Amino acid sequence: MTKDIPCMQRSGGASVSRVGALPARGGLGLKPEHFQTILEHLPALGFFEIHAENYMVAGGPFHHYLTRIRSHYPLSIHGVGLSIGGAAPPDEAHLDRLAALLERYAPQSFSEHLAWSSHGGAFFNDLLPAPYHAGTLNRVCEHIDRVQERLGRRMLIENPATYVEFVESTLGEGEFITELVRRTGCGLLLDINNVHVSCVNHGRDPHAFIQTLPLAATGQIHLAGFAEDLDADGHPLLIDSHGAPVAEAVWELFRTVVQQLGPLPTLIERDNDIPAFPVLLAEARRAEAVMAALGDMAVTA
Amino acid sequence: MNTQAKFAAALLDPACPCPSGLKTWTGGDPARRFQVYRNNVVASLIDALADTFPVTLELVGDAFFRAMAGVFVRGCPPRSPILAFYGDDFPDFIGSFPPAAGLAYLADVARLEYLRVRAFHAADSMPIGAAELAGVLADESALPGLRLRVHPSLSVLHSRSAVVSLWAAHQGIGSLAQVVPSEPETALVLRHGLEVDVIEVSPAAGECIAAIVEGLPLGAAVARASSIDEAFDPAGVLGLLLQKSAITALIPSRRES
Q1: Quick one: B174 and B255 in the same domain?
Q2: Using the beta-carbon criterion (under 8 Å), do A124 and B41 form an inter-chain contact?
């Protein structure tokens, strides 16, 4: 059994009160091709989300537009490069860049992945899987503690989409994430597409699996689309592509979660084959319609 | 090697077998599943290069570009998670990539595209006004010692190829059929407002601007340009930089007289 490591207190409230929380509404990933449309029409939308690393540039159009869009909307900053699930501690230079970005845009939420993306100085630009056991649990807790300490705020950790599992794993993913949340005080970014993808890929019942996650700590939900493939034995292998509309199976899981937890900030994630803005807006509206029908819109507003 | 090191090594090396220690719920072979990670890594990094080097891609076609970029990605993965700047050594790689040897202009087109990306994301900086410049220019004796600070986005590329014309033809400006690729051209790259401009300048003007960027005083910058073209007149360069809001500070010589 692992020993509890010193962890940050649940001090998120302090920083959250400074910048507020994301509203329990639909949100969209912010894409450069939509900057002007958004500023021209200012669509009714709960929030936008950016990938932190895309905005780690000195100046120019990205900051020009984000500054203006931020003045109209709440913001979620979602990191893809901290490699929290990795063997090495988070890169301090990268943490410095993140801290500067968070300082500049005062986002209502900061989240990262239970995955690794860097090793030996190389960055792989993918969210790679880690085994789940006491050793990796201690390490990931240390990494989350360091991130929360450096950024001075509570972060959300996202459950991954995975294609393989490790022989050395001794803990279930739900158990692992539950411990992360308990020990570090971080919240959960519940990626329902990842739940679906991983459960199909590992032969699990997603409705049962989702109950093993620390759902009470959910600060945000991600919905996305996947691509379909087959593994070597002809079993379905789903790829977390972010390149398709949200699948019906994922909407169904979302309804279950909303019935259980009430409305939550819910992002439509689309990073590839990006359609026209109204198509994405319609998906965000659908998420809001589900929440309006199944939950009390005022629960967390 | 630990689990992660084995996994990482196999991601970039197609000859490396699927790492041990992986399993699937059916008890089947995990190699095909591991291949998903391999594909994600290499394809997403090739896509990142395709975003930065779109004209280079158009010049050689999608299949050639992806094959060339794939070799680069496996040998030179990013060292930073900030992918906007991935590929700063891709132009040099192209220049020494044997299958592209017949396209002498390709590496410089890639250099130009990389300078455009740098310019796009460069720091913002307020330009000086025309009146301030006019005031300083009025004292001709002070001009040789005057240093200009220019916009952080600005850079100059001297090429033995027609990089500006090739690039422009792929933006629908001019006809590709009329471009003589072996015609040397000098490119000035800068961001003006939110747009990145690519402007062809004379080699002497390019030399003058490059010297200004290096921090040389105007007199020395003009001397360098004049060594290329005796008739070089800096008025055109100053006018262009002013028009493009590219002069951000004037630093008079500290010496008296």
Answers
A1: yes
A2: yes
At residue A1, the pLDDT reads 35
Q: In which band, very low, low, confident or very high, does the pLDDT at B253 lie, cut at 50, 70 and 90?
A: confident
Same domain, B99 and B131: no
B99 and B157 assigned to the same domain: no
Contacting residues of A for B29, CB less than 8 Å apart? 232-233
Q: Best residue in B73, B121, B195 to probe A by mutation, most A CBs within 10 Å?
A: B121
Residue recorded with tokens 């990842």: A194
Q: Could you tell me if residue A20 is inside a domain?
A: yes
How many domains, chain B? 2
Residue B243 belongs to domain spanning: 123-257
**Spatial separation of the C-alpha atoms in residues B228 and B206, rounded to whole Å:** 10
CATH number at residue B202: 3.90.930
Is the residue at A30 inside a domain?
A: yes
Q: Which of residues 76-135 of B touch A (CB under 8 A)?
A: 77-84, 119-125
Domain that holds residue A134: 12-294
pLDDT at A301 (0 to 100): 39
Chain B residue with Cα closest to A124: B41
Nearest to B45 among A60, A118, A125 (CB): A125
Regions in chain A scoring below 50 on pLDDT: 1-18, 297-301
Whether residue B225 lies inside any domain: the answer is yes
**A35 in contact with B at a CB cutoff of 8 Å?**
no
B255 in contact with chain A, both atoms CB, cutoff 8 A: no
Q: Flag whether A3 is in a domain.
A: no
DSSP string, B127-187: PPPHHHHHHHHT-GGGGGG-EEEE-TT-EEEEESS-HHHHHHHTTTSS-GGG--TTS-EEE
- Please state the domain count of chain A: 1
Q: If you measure CA to CA, which chain B residue comes closest to A166?
A: B22
**B118 is a domain residue:** no
Nearest by CB: B122 against A59, A163, A168: A59
Tens digit of each residue's pLDDT (9 = 90 or more) over B142-193: 999 999 999 999 999 999 999 999 999 999 888 888 999 999 999 999 999 9
- pLDDT tens-digit map of B67-108: 999 999 999 999 999 999 999 999 999 999 999 999 999 999
DSSP sequence for B60-80:
H-HHHHHHHHHHHHHHS--SS
**Is residue A296 less than 8 Å (CB to CB) from chain B?**
no
Are B98 and B133 part of one and the same domain? no
Q: Mean pLDDT over all residues of chain B? A: 95
Give the chain A residue nearest B73 (alpha carbons): A124
Residues B88 and B141 in one domain: no
In a domain, A5, yes or no: no
In this prediction the ipTM stands at: 0.94
Give the model's pLDDT for residue A19: 57
Q: Which of B31, B40, B79 sits opposite A126 (nearest CB)?
A: B40
Which B-chain residues 45-84 have CB contacts (< 8 A) with chain A? 45, 48, 77-84
CATH no. for residue A162? 3.20.20.150
Q: Tell me the residues of chain A between 171 and 230 that have a Cβ less than 8 Å away from chain B.
A: 201-204, 229
